[in-house]
């Protein structure tokens, strides 16, 4: 009994500490970017009047971010001109003025520099605030599009009960937020107990410019989407321009202290009986009367409750159907906004001039282009062997273009005319990671902090592809030449959509056609065609070891002793001399604990048994935690000895875009997938 009490007490203390740390992180963390939407059909030229007005709007929003309501709307330029800009921000209702200003300032900067440069219509969501600007007035207008969805990957232990609790809680908050006084925060939160040690935290919020009716409509429309995006998940949020709804099992907003108990109300004294009067009986007659009342009222109450539930369910279903119809229209608009004409692309690339050519890979050639608005892009002209129809290709591009993450290269649009299928990507200023990692003249430019940031960024990008995006995509060709570096040396994974667009979009399974680069392919994939998210984990492990050592994995295969990089690292790890592996170019800037942790994680990722490789969530946790215990790695997979495996598919020399029946398409690192870099 004492032991059990001690265990329960320890669990309770641990949970309290976790809750305290969560609260600390909520209140002290920097603004957390979550999602953004840019309108690809409306752009402005550099140094134009629109840009000047946009700068005025962003400056005004930033300076007014300390306003009490946490919301501000402003405009710049003449409303009857094409250069007018309308902007607003909405901060989460519990934020202090300083935190609100921090978020708005960060959003205003990142919108024009990172996420939506040269775009007239932009919408950014952070955990702490929303920033919006466009060339069309939206004040006091209910907007449910564009929209964003996010959810926790964890599932509730009792999904039915959890689903009901979420619906009841967030729906109950609608009237509280919608009926807030005019010009006040239309914001409400609530905490409900789910299990003994798990609470449900819910939040709803509208922009204060909405009427009570519009706010109510917006919130109920957002709640109606929970079954489609977040059913049974431990957390979820639906984000509209005019409102947002969110729930989690941890406190993501500042908790308000409980109100003091109400002052006791004194009941009136019983009436004084006149002398000689007979007191009224409180016996059987009154009890019978009470039972009769109960017998009549309770069935009526139950009936009304059931009718109300049926009405609400039908109304929610109707609302959901309406939103689904709106989504169909949104998808059509998305296709139109992403589509470029072949004439536009041809002009942007100077008719695909060799002087504009950036590289060539298995899926096609890449050119640098400049759009009419001055924006630089990377244009990938796909090889004519995908076998996809025009409509199928368009649908695939629309899906992949919605994958928005700071560590992925963004797809800006496409062109599909006749046999031509072209993808338009954002242009990343710096070259690919291998240019800095293996070029002796550039290795010194990539110090240890930059390398550690690169490892973290790549891991976050892969986690997004595997778990957090609308699609579940396995990259299958992760390597240094497919990681681009922007002007601030932030990593961006390239070619993550190629597998899906080329009709190999399974998330797990087996195939007789293996694509990828020799030295980075997991053994079970290369030998048996079996692939899963653990295939990318293996490739990430190889890449981590390359980043730490500054050595190219494939270079080891031509060495005299026949030792590959994985065996080389394993031997140093086993002998207790891991720091000797570190690239000599970073030995003046490295952190000993970070280097050893990265080598440890890299070896865990390249274990021969896929089940022994960590999941991406665990990898990110290991990278960020200094106290997390990690299992000891075993000897890694040694790929060379497996090439004579009798079950291995026959190997051919075909490139990865050519049709090959029952063939293993492996490419050397220099030419497998396009390398994007400016000349």
Rg measurement, Å: 30 Å
Domain module count: 4
CATH topology of the largest domain, what is it called?
Answer: Transferase(Phosphotransferase), domain 1
Uncertain runs are 1-28, 258-288, 315-332, 639-679
Cα separation of the termini: 73 Å
User: What percent of residues are in strands?
Assistant: 15-25%
Oligomer: single chain
Strand tally, please?
Answer: 21
Strand order, largest beta sheet: 1-4-5-3-2
Q: Provide the CATH architecture of the largest domain.
A: Orthogonal Bundle
The percentage helix is 25-40%
Helical run tally? 17
At the fourth level of CATH, the homologous superfamily of the largest domain is Transferase(Phosphotransferase) domain 1
Secondary structure: elements and pairs:
Blueprint: H1 2-28, E1 33-38, H2 49-63, E2 71-76, E3 85-91, H3 97-115, E4 122-126, E5 129-134, E6 148-151, H4 159-178, E7 186-195, E8 198-206, H5 212-223, H6 226-229, E9 236-239, E10 243-248, H7 284-338, H8 342-348, E11 357-361, E12 364-370, E13 376-382, H9 390-401, E14 411-417, E15 420-426, H10 433-437, H11 448-468, E16 483-485, E17 491-493, H12 498-501, E18 509-510, H13 523-528, E19 530-531, H14 533-549, H15 565-574, H16 592-605, H17 616-624, E20 651-652, E21 664-665
Parallel strand pairs: 20-21
Antiparallel strand pairs: 1-4, 2-3, 3-5, 4-5, 6-9, 7-8, 8-10, 9-10, 11-12, 12-13, 13-15, 14-15, 16-17, 18-19
Helix pairs in contact: 2-3, 4-5, 7-9, 11-14, 11-17, 14-16
């Amino acid at each position: 009994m004492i032991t059990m009490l001690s265990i329960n007490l320890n669990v309770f203390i641990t949970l309290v500490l976790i809750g305290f740390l969560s609260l600390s992180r909520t209140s002290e963390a920097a603004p957390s970017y979550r999602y953004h939407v840019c309108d690809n059909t409306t752009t402005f030229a550099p140094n134009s009047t629109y840009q000047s007005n946009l700068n005025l709007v962003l400056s005004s929003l930033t300076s007014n971010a300390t306003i009490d309501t946490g919301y501000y709307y402003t405009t710049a330029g003449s409303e009857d001109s094409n250069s007018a800009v309308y902007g607003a921000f909405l901060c989460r209702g519990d934020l202090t003025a300083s935190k609100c200003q921090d978020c708005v300032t960060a959003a205003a900067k990142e919108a024009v520099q990172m996420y939506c440069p040269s775009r007239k219509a932009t919408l950014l969501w952070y955990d702490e605030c929303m920033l919006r600007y466009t060339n069309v007035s939206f004040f006091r207008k209910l907007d449910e599009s564009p929209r964003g969805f996010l959810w926790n990957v964890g599932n509730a232990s009792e999904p039915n009960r959890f689903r009901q609790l979420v619906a009841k809680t967030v729906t109950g908050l609608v009237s509280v937020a919608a009926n807030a006084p005019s010009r006040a925060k239309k914001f409400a939160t609530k905490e409900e107990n789910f299990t003994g040690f798990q609470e449900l935290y819910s939040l709803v919020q509208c922009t204060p410019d909405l009427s009570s009716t519009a706010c109510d409509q917006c919130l109920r429309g957002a709640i109606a989407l929970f079954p489609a995006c977040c059913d049974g998940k431990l957390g979820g949020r639906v984000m509209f321009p005019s409102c947002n709804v969110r729930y989690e099992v941890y406190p993501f907003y500042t908790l308000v202290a409980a109100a003091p108990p109400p002052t006791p109300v004194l009941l009136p004294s019983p009436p004084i009986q006149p002398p000689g009067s007979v007191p009224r009986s409180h016996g059987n007659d009154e009890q019978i009367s009470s039972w009769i009342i109960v017998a009549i009222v309770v069935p009526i109450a139950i009936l009304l409750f059931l009718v109300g539930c049926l009405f609400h369910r039908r109304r929610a279903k109707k609302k959901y159907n309406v939103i689904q119809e709106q989504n169909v229209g949104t998808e059509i608009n998305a296709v139109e906004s992403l589509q470029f004409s072949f004439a536009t692309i041809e002009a942007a690339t100077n008719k695909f001039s060799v002087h504009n050519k950036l590289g060539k890979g298995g899926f096609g050639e890449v050119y640098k282009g400049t759009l009419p608005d001055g924006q630089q892009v990377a244009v990938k002209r796909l090889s004519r062997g995908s076998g996809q129809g025009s409509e199928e290709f368009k649908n695939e591009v629309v899906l992949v273009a919605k994958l928005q993450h700071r560590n992925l290269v963004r797809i800006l649009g496409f062109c599909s005319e006749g046999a031509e299928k072209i993808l338009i990507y954002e242009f990343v200023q710096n070259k690919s990671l291998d240019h800095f990692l293996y070029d002796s003249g550039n290795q010194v430019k990539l110090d240890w902090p930059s390398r550690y940031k690169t490892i973290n960024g790549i891991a976050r990008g892969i986690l997004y592809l595997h778990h957090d995006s609308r699609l579940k995509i396995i990259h299958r060709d992760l390597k240094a030449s497919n990681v681009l570096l922007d002007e601030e040396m932030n990593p961006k994974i390239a070619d993550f959509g190629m597998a899906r667009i080329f009709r190999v979009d399974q998330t797990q399974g087996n195939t007789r056609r293996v694509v990828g680069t020799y030295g980075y392919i997991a053994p079970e994939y290369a030998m048996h065609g079996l692939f899963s998210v653990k295939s990318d984990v293996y490739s990430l492990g190889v890449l981590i070891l390359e980043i730490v050592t500054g050595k190219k994995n494939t270079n080891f295969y031509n060495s005299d002793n026949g030792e590959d990089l994985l065996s080389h690292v394993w031997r140093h790890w086993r002998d207790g001399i891991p720091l000797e592996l570190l690239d000599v170019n970073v030995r003046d800037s490295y952190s000993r604990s970070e280097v050893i942790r990265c080598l440890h994680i890299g070896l865990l990722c390249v274990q021969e048994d896929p089940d022994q490789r960590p999941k991406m969530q665990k990898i990110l946790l290991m990278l960020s935690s200094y106290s997390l215990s990690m299992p000891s790695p075993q000897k890694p997979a040694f790929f060379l000895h497996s090439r004579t495996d009798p079950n291995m598919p026959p190997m051919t020399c075909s490139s990865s875009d050519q049709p090959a029946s029952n063939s293993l398409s492996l490419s050397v690192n220099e030419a497998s997938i396009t390398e994007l870099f400016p000349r």
